[in-house]
Amino acid sequence: MNAAILGLGRFGTQLARELVKMRVDVLAVDSNSARVNELAETVLLAAEGNLTDVDFLESLGLRSYDYVVVAIGSDIAASVLITLTLKQRLRLKFVAAKSATEDHSRALELAGADVVVNPEREAAVRLAHTLGARAVADYMSIQADYGIAKVRAPASVHGIKIGDIDMQGRFKVFLLARVREASVSFNPDLGDVVKPGDTWIVSGRDADLAALQR
Amino acid sequence: MNAAILGLGRFGTQLARELVKMRVDVLAVDSNSARVNELAETVLLAAEGNLTDVDFLESLGLRSYDYVVVAIGSDIAASVLITLTLKQRLRLKFVAAKSATEDHSRALELAGADVVVNPEREAAVRLAHTLGARAVADYMSIQADYGIAKVRAPASVHGIKIGDIDMQGRFKVFLLARVREASVSFNPDLGDVVKPGDTWIVSGRDADLAALQR
Ligand SMILES: Nc1ncnc2c1ncn2[C@@H]1O[C@H](COP(=O)(O)OP(=O)(O)OP(=O)(O)O)[C@@H](O)[C@H]1O
Ligand SMILES: Nc1ncnc2c1ncn2[C@@H]1O[C@H](COP(=O)(O)OP(=O)(O)OP(=O)(O)O)[C@@H](O)[C@H]1O
Fold first, then answer.
1. Which end of chain A is less crowded, N or C, counting CB atoms within 10 A of the terminal residue's CB?
2. Which CATH number is B187's domain given?
3. Same domain, yes or no, for B66 and B113?
4. For A138-147, how does the pLDDT look when each residue is reduced to its tens digit (9 = 90+)?
């Protein structure tokens, strides 16, 4: 397996190092000689030059690589031009590209990128959901004899507004979050009507959770 | 559930937006008024000011937030100072911080960060392994009547160098990768000795894969 990494910023450099750890044959390219030199001892091949120069790009023999990654984030025009050249002119089978913004991602897709990676956005979404999971776990850990369960919203309240349901009085549970079509809401709108298929993440005593699960 | 996001670069902004989608109550803070204004309509609360100013930091009432995220990547000193102040002086229960480099991560851990996020490094590692998995799948798809299997390295070759094993002749398979202690190698060193516990990812005809699996 081999891979070519074009652009050796933090993302490109970390990618090259991880592939080398997996004993993949790596070509690393950048116009900045210091960055090329920093990786020259680690990777199989390193090259220095301007990737927007089509002659230089063609001289790299990229067609013999399984995977090529365009790891240039902040120069959006360069990133899109290189990706377009690799996919449409050189007809490479697989090109992944790093994106900095949603518009950048869209342009890379139009240019033909097979995979678009936006590290900040993906890490942000991942952390948001990690915090959500922690909120559920933290809530559970402070309620000693309470559990947490994921239950289908009861048929008896389909079509009823969340705010009109007396969760404590009627079901003896606390509604932590509502999940609908894979999207989780921690403070569902009180005017929101319960739909069949809604899932509730609720906290309560085990007997009450069990009753809801039936 | 509520969360405070300190620093509204691409990571902080995407994090705030995703939490708002999950209907979490969000406080967004930055010294740059344009960035604060951009999010002011989306989040519950927004504030503008210098987060390295301890009086300003204390005025935000962060103790009433479940989670606080320091989303300042490029000013390492500011990021570490703010994290230290939040954990050691304000004694906040949970602080996540964004890091730009390994040294930055280490400093954030020393400062007491509960979670350190390095988007470029994590995305790079994830892409490296995605490419590895694709390499295995691609290899499989071009060999019509061949399969791929993960098998324990046979006891008969424990202690033998990889390069001294005639994979084709003896086992009638091609060694795609070797997995040892959760670390995968696509081109294992030919001088590397097979250890008990090694797993091989091999390609071959089903009957030969089955023979190896016994
Ligand atoms: N036209 C080009 N030819 C060759 N190398 C280039 C070209 N443009 C940018 N680079 C290199 O690509 C690397 C990454 O570029 P840049 O810093 O713009 O991306 P980034 O995505 O912001 O970086 P990071 O991965 O650190 O977040 C730099 O080392 C830069 O020298
Ligand atoms: N001392 C400070 N007080 C308040 N806001 C700050 C301070 N230092 C930096 N910021 C803000 O934090 C935000 C993110 O900072 P910066 O651009 O350094 O981080 P980054 O991690 O490189 O960004 P990105 O998330 O876009 O990759 C910026 O909007 C900046 O205005």
1. C
2. 3.30.70.1450
3. yes
4. 776 666 677 8
